[in-house]
UniProtKB/TrEMBL annotation:
GO terms for biological process: mitochondrial proton-transporting ATP synthase complex assembly. PANTHER family: ATP SYNTHASE ASSEMBLY FACTOR FMC1, MITOCHONDRIAL (PTHR28015:SF1). InterPro entries: Fmc1. This is Piso0_003413 protein.
């Protein structure tokens, strides 16, 4: 494997992790902002104001873009032109580690959903297992 291929593998894995992390962290923020905008829209309708601007803001929330990945460190490695065997092996090891961690996290979330579940959802599911239901607010 060449230095260039090792760099591409590392960049691809970093990009995947970066996108996945952004999506998971941004999801809750979007839900909070959407709820706030819907509340403000409701208040505007009650006051007789135009609520179209709130609809536009709600639509824009879903279109959040992933920020660009900072690859300055990797570019610095390329600039140094240290393409010896140890550097190439290190880049491959880092890319493999990042890919393995990403896969581990995905499998953990898939087969153990309780880790990422909110407390309210845990209570609701536990109550459902014993034949009870949680009262609605």
């Amino acid at each position: 494997m060449t230095f260039k291929q090792a760099y591409k593998d590392l960049h691809r894995e970093l990009r995947r992790v970066h996108i996945r992390t952004f999506e998971s962290r941004n999801k809750k923020d979007i839900e909070k902002q959407r709820a706030l905008l819907q509340y403000e829209k409701l208040q505007a309708v009650r006051k007789g104001e135009d609520a179209a601007k709130y609809d536009e803001q709600i639509k824009r929330l879903a279109q959040a873009k992933v920020p660009k990945l900072d690859t300055s460190l990797a570019k610095a490695l390329i600039a140094e032109q240290q393409a010896n065997k140890k550097t190439i092996e290190h880049l491959r090891n880092v890319a493999t580690f990042i890919g393995s961690q990403r896969e581990y996290t995905e499998l953990l979330e898939r087969y153990n959903p309780g880790l990422t579940m909110e407390q309210e959802e845990k209570v609701r599911r536990t109550a459902g297992k014993v034949g009870l239901s949680v009262p609605e607010k």
